[in-house]
Amino acid sequence: MAFEIKENKGSIFKNDYKKEDKHPDYKGKINVEGKIYDIGLYLNETKEGKKYFGVSIQKEYIKEGATVEHTKEVIRERYKTQEEVTNEDLNEQEDILPF
Questions:
Q1: What's the CA gap between 95 and 3, in Å, rounded?
Q2: What does DSSP assign to residue 20?
Q3: CA distance 80 to 77
Q4: Nearest Cα to 62, choosing from 53, 51, 73?
Q5: Coil, strand or helix: which one is 2?
Q6: In terms of C-beta distances under 8 Å and separation of at least 24 residues, what long-range contacts does 6-10 make, across chains too?
Q7: Calpha distance 77→12 (Å, rounded)
Q8: How far apart are CA 51 and CA 48, in angstroms?
Q9: What is the pLDDT, as a whole number, of residue 17?
Q10: With contact defined as beta carbons under 8 Å apart, do 9 and 31 qualify?
Q11: Span 1-50, pLDDT tens digits
């Protein structure tokens, strides 16, 4: 079964490819009223030490010249379905979330 983002839902995962501070700590995709957007979360901290997420949202990036089938395959490879997320994955994320 192909991975499909349900309307007004999304998924965000740790960005294992982060190389610079300007890259998001977490990346994902969201479906807002039938339109897919890329979302990035940045772990930030106020001067007082309170942690929070900064958010960026932009239209879904599709590489120029990519076919629809190729794009779907890339998405399938990058994002796990909920059934594939293990308790270990969830515990690892809880350790770094600021809330």
A1: 27
A2: S
A3: 8
A4: 73
A5: coil
A6: 6/31, 7/31, 7/33, 7/34, 8/32, 8/33, 10/39
A7: 14
A8: 9
A9: 92
A10: yes
A11: 457 888 899 999 999 999 999 999 999 999 998 888 999 999 999 999 99
Total number of residues shown for the chain: 99
pLDDT digits (tens, 9 = 90+) for 74-96: 666 555 454 454 445 444 444 44
Q: Helical H runs in 31-86?
A: 68-78
Read off the pTM: 0.61
Task: Give the chain's radius of gyration (CA, Å).
Answer: 15
Q: Is 34 helix (H, G, I), strand (E, B) or coil?
A: coil
* Structure token digits, residue 91: 């515990």
Q: Residue 36 burial by CB count (10 A; 0-12/13-18/19+): exposed, middle or buried?
A: middle
Distance CA 65, CA 60 (A): 15
**Amino acid, res. 2:** A
26, β-bridge pairs: 14, 41
